[in-house]
């Protein structure tokens, strides 16, 4: 079993330290900056052995080279973005397995936010590290992909169990929830979730991790096939990918 430590950095990013207790190996997922990582490892007596990158954006790879220079660690990242990941050693893609000591993650190709975005799923820990593909009550902007591409990626993640914990890379939940209520106002699960989120944020607490079960019930970007959402969008019977595209379009212009 992994020990997972969540580190808030920058304005709204989350980094994750993953520590395999049996081997002592420790990875950091998407290190934007190095100092909080170094401090958290020093506090726990851990030594970094790996970086797991989900995609190439600077706020996910900014500390790659500093950490590699200091620790001589191994950087794992998406094969489709090999040329854009600083210091990459191992390039992986859909169906590959990544090992951290005795722990193992299945890699999923989930493009849409970027062309080569990947996610890491640790089955034994029911933990998904999905970068900027899936957020709590949201999904990533389509910087390098089409709605069809992102919808396919989200459908792939929706095959995972409801108990899967969603460790995404940003604290966007409250803002995402405000948008979700604008397109899915009659959703009682969403209303309850937003009450919980507002209470957490008022105390300065994180809303992450969520679970896939919660996201199925509250995230409009996973509910494109749901008749209630389709009714609210006046798109009853439309193909889910079209409903997803319209939902994403509205989110892009929401304020």
Automatic annotation (TrEMBL):
<dbReference type="Pfam" id="PF00753">
    <property type="entry name" value="Lactamase_B"/>
</dbReference>
<protein>
    <recommendedName>
        <fullName>Hydroxyacylglutathione hydrolase</fullName>
        <ecNumber>3.1.2.6</ecNumber>
    </recommendedName>
</protein>
<comment type="pathway">
    <text>Secondary metabolite metabolism; methylglyoxal degradation; (R)-lactate from methylglyoxal: step 2/2.</text>
</comment>
<feature type="binding site">
    <location>
        <position position="113"/>
    </location>
    <ligand>
        <name>Zn(2+) 1</name>
    </ligand>
</feature>
<feature type="domain" description="Metallo-beta-lactamase">
    <location>
        <begin position="12"/>
        <end position="170"/>
    </location>
</feature>
<dbReference type="InterPro" id="IPR050110">
    <property type="entry name" value="Glyoxalase_II_hydrolase"/>
</dbReference>
<feature type="binding site">
    <location>
        <position position="59"/>
    </location>
    <ligand>
        <name>Zn(2+) 2</name>
    </ligand>
</feature>
<comment type="function">
    <text>Thiolesterase that catalyzes the hydrolysis of S-D-lactoyl-glutathione to form glutathione and D-lactic acid.</text>
</comment>
<comment type="similarity">
    <text>Belongs to the metallo-beta-lactamase superfamily. Glyoxalase II family.</text>
</comment>
<dbReference type="InterPro" id="IPR035680">
    <property type="entry name" value="Clx_II_MBL"/>
</dbReference>
<keyword id="KW-0862">Zinc</keyword>
<dbReference type="Pfam" id="PF16123">
    <property type="entry name" value="HAGH_C"/>
</dbReference>
<keyword id="KW-0479">Metal-binding</keyword>
<dbReference type="InterPro" id="IPR017782">
    <property type="entry name" value="Hydroxyacylglutathione_Hdrlase"/>
</dbReference>
<dbReference type="GO" id="GO:0046872">
    <property type="term" value="F:metal ion binding"/>
</dbReference>
<dbReference type="InterPro" id="IPR032282">
    <property type="entry name" value="HAGH_C"/>
</dbReference>
<dbReference type="InterPro" id="IPR001279">
    <property type="entry name" value="Metallo-B-lactamas"/>
</dbReference>
<feature type="binding site">
    <location>
        <position position="132"/>
    </location>
    <ligand>
        <name>Zn(2+) 2</name>
    </ligand>
</feature>
<dbReference type="GO" id="GO:0019243">
    <property type="term" value="P:methylglyoxal catabolic process to D-lactate via S-lactoyl-glutathione"/>
</dbReference>
<feature type="binding site">
    <location>
        <position position="55"/>
    </location>
    <ligand>
        <name>Zn(2+) 1</name>
    </ligand>
</feature>
<dbReference type="InterPro" id="IPR036866">
    <property type="entry name" value="RibonucZ/Hydroxyglut_hydro"/>
</dbReference>
<feature type="binding site">
    <location>
        <position position="60"/>
    </location>
    <ligand>
        <name>Zn(2+) 2</name>
    </ligand>
</feature>
<feature type="binding site">
    <location>
        <position position="132"/>
    </location>
    <ligand>
        <name>Zn(2+) 1</name>
    </ligand>
</feature>
<dbReference type="GO" id="GO:0004416">
    <property type="term" value="F:hydroxyacylglutathione hydrolase activity"/>
</dbReference>
<comment type="subunit">
    <text>Monomer.</text>
</comment>
<feature type="binding site">
    <location>
        <position position="57"/>
    </location>
    <ligand>
        <name>Zn(2+) 1</name>
    </ligand>
</feature>
<keyword id="KW-0378">Hydrolase</keyword>
<feature type="binding site">
    <location>
        <position position="170"/>
    </location>
    <ligand>
        <name>Zn(2+) 2</name>
    </ligand>
</feature>
């Amino acid at each position: 079993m992994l020990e997972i430590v969540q580190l808030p950095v920058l304005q709204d990013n989350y980094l994750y330290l993953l520590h395999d207790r049996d081997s002592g190996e420790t990875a950091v997922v998407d290190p934007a900056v190095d100092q909080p990582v170094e401090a958290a490892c020093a506090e726990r007596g851990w030594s970094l052995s790996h970086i797991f990158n989900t995609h190439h954006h600077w706020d996910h790879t900014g500390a790659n080279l500093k950490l590699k220079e200091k620790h001589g660690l191994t950087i794992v990242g998406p094969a489709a973005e090999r040329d854009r990941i600083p210091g990459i050693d191992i390039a992986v893609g859909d169906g590959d397995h990544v090992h951290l000591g005795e722990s193992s993650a299945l890699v999923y190709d989930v493009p849409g936010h970027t062309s080569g975005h990947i996610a890491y799923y640790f089955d034994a820990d029911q933990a998904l590290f999905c970068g900027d593909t899936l957020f709590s009550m949201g999904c990533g902007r389509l910087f390098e992909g089409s709605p069809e591409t992102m919808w396919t990626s989200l459908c792939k993640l929706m095959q995972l169990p409801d108990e899967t914990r969603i460790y995404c890379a940003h604290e966007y939940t409250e803002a995402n929830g405000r948008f979700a209520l604008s397109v899915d106002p009659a959703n009682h699960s969403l209303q309850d979730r937003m009450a919980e989120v507002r209470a957490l944020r008022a105390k300065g607490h994180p809303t992450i991790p969520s679970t896939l079960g919660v996201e199925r019930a509250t995230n409009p970007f996973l509910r494109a096939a749901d008749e209630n959402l389709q009714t609210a969008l006046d798109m009853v019977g439309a193909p889910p990918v079209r409903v997803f595209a319209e939902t994403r379009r509205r989110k892009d212009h929401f304020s």
